[in-house]
Amino acid sequence: MAAHDAQHSTPVSTGTEGVKRGMAEQLKGGVIMDVVTPEQAKIAEDAGAVAVMALERVPADIRAQGGIARMSDPDMVEGIIGAVSIPVMAKARIGHFVEAQVLQSLGVDYIDESEVLTPADEAHHIAKSAFTVPFVCGATDLGEALRRISEGAAMIRSKGEAGTGNVVEAVRHMRAIRAGIRHLGTLDETELFVAAKELRAPHDLVVEVARRGELPVVLFTAGGIATPADAAMMMQLGAQGVFVGSGIFKSGDPAQRAAAIVQATTFHDDPDVVAKVSRGLGEAMVGINVATLPDSERYATRGW
Amino acid sequence: MRENPAVPVIGVLALQGDVREHLAALRAQGAEAVTVRRPAELARIDGLVVPGGESTTMAKLAARFELLEPLRAAIAGGLPAYGSCAGMIMLADRLLDAPADQVTVGGLDVTVRRNAFGRQVDSFESEVALDGIAGGPLHAVFIRAPWVEEAGPEVRVLGRVVGGPADGKIVAVRQGHLVATSFHPELTGDRRVHALFVDIVREHLAQQAGAVAGNERGKS
Predict the structure, then answer these.
(1) Which listed residue (B85, B177, B194, B204) is catalytic?
(2) Which strand ranges, in their side-by-side order, compose the sheet holding B124-128?
(3) Residue B47 pLDDT more than 90?
(4) Does B55 appear as a known binding residue?
(5) Residues A15, B121: contact at Cβ < 8 Å?
(6) Whether the Cβ atoms of residue A71 and residue A117 lie closer than 8 Å to each other
(7) What CATH number corresponds to the domain at position B55?
(8) How far apart, in Å, are the Cα atoms of B163 and each of A6, A294, B124, B166, B187?
(9) Could you confirm whether B184 is annotated as catalytic?
(10) Is residue A3 scored above 50 in pLDDT?
(11) Could you tell me which of A26, A212, A165 has the C-alpha nearest to residue B50?
(12) Does some domain include residue B155?
């Protein structure tokens, strides 16, 4: 955070790394909920969501209906922005920089360059640093997280396997990212050069993570979280907050489940609270056994 | 009364938000910093920080876990408090641009406008000079920040935005033991706002100790 001589330069600067990463810091300990209508956005806000993710279809429906999944209709995004006072995020396809330009122009607060949508580029992610709006990206391991950060992502989430209601992949990815960070901490200066090569990540970022013992940006979890206990487990595994996609609005009582997941996230280390809020929630989303998913239907393998 | 007023115990409201950054900033100023999520945890603190975060979420969780009334009682009883961004909203007596049902802890006789500077694309960094803080302007990070629209007669304006579209807007205030900033000193390395607040807590403790000592002498 330099710019102590700001009297001699621009007095007010937007789109800085400080405000992009700092925005994610404000979301910590909170739950970000997928919504497809302004009405759902209002339910999420009333339940205590720290932000909503505007999208056209929740991942479970994308799985069920197939076809190409794209950025939401601008009218829908605007409707959701108008319905709530909490931050509104929206998804762009991997590599689809024009969808990102459009979402920035609509005034969304964060863009999720998301594997849940159909990728638009099978080699390149969006060059995110140039945008004023910040980006969150998914990752399955430390190398992928660091590649996204080097492209300008200001927040990382585990990918998990969205739309399954099955937390197993989120656990796998969160453990992989955290184990990767711990491993870097055991390496000496010489070994970090090789680690950067193996992680396919910039050496300076690898050194920074080894030194700090954590990512330089906030780390959330996503992909398959369906119950308060799922959210609390992911927090105990080291997530700094939770994205819930299909888990809320594909369940029996969305308002109550949403509030319960918010409370379980805050009190993730207090089993009495998690037990209390887990009662009487009605049916959770049905869910899919990830092991039976063919590779072509696994979203976590999208992104490079 | 505390055994060692030089090391005040300061709680950070830990329902949601950038709690860890405030804990670190307070510890760097020599305070013992602890998290507060339950009413019982208010009993042992000498000061309270309400962090940055999402104010609607904090308000709902505070109400749900029966913290709201104990927080109001503690602040009405003189507990020093500092709020950054969402914390400023939580300490405000009156809100603008908030959902109709959004509650606050209150205590500061101000009207605060939520998301006053605009959306995230309008979030910015700038320099803000604060009345009572020496060493030149602070580097300030504003994230979907509120500002103080109106301040009551007991409220001292500590700082205003200089330049840009919101030139002159009030972004730092103090009323007795209560301090609030629109921006996030916990996100920068500049610890002067936290130092000011820890000093307020120490002075408050010393005054309380003096009052207790006076009562003790009166009895003997």
Answers:
(1) B85
(2) A13-14, B124-128, B138-142
(3) yes
(4) yes
(5) yes
(6) yes
(7) 3.40.50.880
(8) 11, 57, 12, 7, 22
(9) yes
(10) no
(11) A26
(12) yes
Torsion sign (Cα): B196, B185, B89, B66: negative
A89 to each of A187, A225, B20, how far by Cα in Å? 37, 18, 24
Structure tokens that stand for A284 in this block: 């959770």
Q: Is A206 helix (H, G, I), strand (E, B) or coil?
A: helix
- Structural domain contains residue B21: yes
pLDDT of residue B5: 67
Q: How far apart are CA A261 and CA B151, in angstroms?
A: 37
Q: Residue A295's pLDDT is what?
A: 83
ipTM of the complex: 0.94
Handedness of CA A125, A129, A134, A138 (dihedral sign): positive
Question: pLDDT tens across B117-130, in order?
Answer: 999 999 999 999 99
Q: Which of A20, A42, A91, A197 is catalytic?
A: A91
Domain range enclosing B173:
9-219
Among A5, A7, A10, A14, most B C-beta atoms within 10 A, so best to mutate, is A14
Assigned fold of A28-297: TIM Barrel (3.20.20)
Q: Tell me the per-residue pLDDT of A94-138, one tens digit each, with 9 for 90 and over.
A: 999 999 999 999 999 999 999 999 999 999 999 999 999 999 999
Q: Is residue B1 part of a domain?
A: no
Residue B2: inside a domain, yes or no? no
CB distance A144 to A177 below 8 Å: no
A160 has binding-site annotation: no
- The model's confidence at residue A289, banded by pLDDT at 50, 70 and 90, is confident
**A6 — pLDDT class (breaks 50, 70, 90):** very low
- Nearest chain B Cα distance for residue A26, angstroms: 4
| Mean pLDDT rounded to a whole number for chain B | 95
Coil, helix or strand at residue B9: strand
Chain A neighbors of B164, CB-CB under 8 A: 11-12
pLDDT at B210 over 50: yes
- Contact yes or no for B162/B178 (Cβ under 8 A): no
